[in-house]
User: What shape does this take?
Amino acid sequence: MLDFLRRRRIYLDNASATPVLSEVVRAMHSEEAFANPGAIHADGVSAKRMLEEARETIAAELGCKPRQVVFTSGLTESNNLAILGFARKLVLAGTPLESTHWIVSAIEHDSVLECFAEIERLGGVVSHADPDAKGIVTPEKIQRLLRPETVFVSVGWANNEIGVIQPLRAIAHLLSSGKTAARIVFHSDAGQGPLYLFPHVHTLGVDLFSLGAGKLYGPRGVGALYVNDKTLIAPTMLGGSQEGGLRAGTEEPVLAAGFARAFETISKERNGEAIRLSRLRDSLARELSARIEGLVINGDLKQALPHMLNISVPNISSEYLVLGLDHEGISISTKSACREGEQFSHVVEALGRAKNPASSKIMTKEERAKNTLRFSLGRDTTASDIIRTVKALERVTRRTAIFAESRIK
Assistant: This one.
């Protein structure tokens, strides 16, 4: 027991939340930013300056203008403001939602899918774009769903469960081809994409781009939404004219400064970390596939974020495996943290059934979706962590198999 307590825990759940960087904490320690940035006295002006400097930094990383960056409380609010804010603007402009058609990827985070459920409740028509077997929502799939009345498309940049990167540029090109009667607004939940991909919004072709600092080694409680000049949205939270009239509530300069510093830091490390983590992730995938019978990898690792690995292990409860690894001092998850406790992963279920490369056994889509494990590596992950994790999971699965056999007998 003492050995267990002394061993360093291994954190492989960075997709759920990243630790806050020490340089981010230092950037947030300011005695000059306590005032309301909307005040006109010297203290308010100082706080406003910190807020706008953070906005300029984030805009530079996105390759856009500072006025196009709206600060929010996080990724969930950014998604809500983008989707429901656009719907509200349509209604305020006299366009009934009953006359509109919306498209969303079927494998989005709940903060996106629930917004589209609300669009349906309000009368809009929503189509869900399924991924292919590799987890990719192709432009062809989007094209088949387009209608003359389509006004909005939402596809996440990289899936939060399997890490597969979506072809945003190709989808944006399709949407701008002028094949529909109205201009189609293109939204993307950026999630963890900026950690390892260049987040230049004009290159990606997006109109609305949701960000959250808590996924990018920054503080929780702050996010941002990029809104291009051609896209009009209305506020979804009322009570003030902050953030260009799009987000009521007193801004928090300290959190914004922490977000900006985190963004700067990960941008400098992006290339090196992507290479390092992809090697560690691929090593983890090879070793687990060789040691655990029937294991299936969910998604295409060649087209996924370099730090994510999602697997399905047959005949063993994924919650049991997570708890078993936790006892070994290793933190992972079964799926998105917002869906922990639910029986199935809607993302993995959408991939269909799978065949294990080392055997002729077929895993049904239900079994595949029920027995998922998500490993998400980070800045502190080492090669020895991978070795220890492989051995620990092998021990846990072996103990489970022995226990199951004893119960049958």
User: Anything to note?
Assistant: The longest helix spans residues 253-291. The chain is about 40% helix and 15% strand. The two ends are 31 Å apart (CA to CA). The longest strand covers residues 101-105.
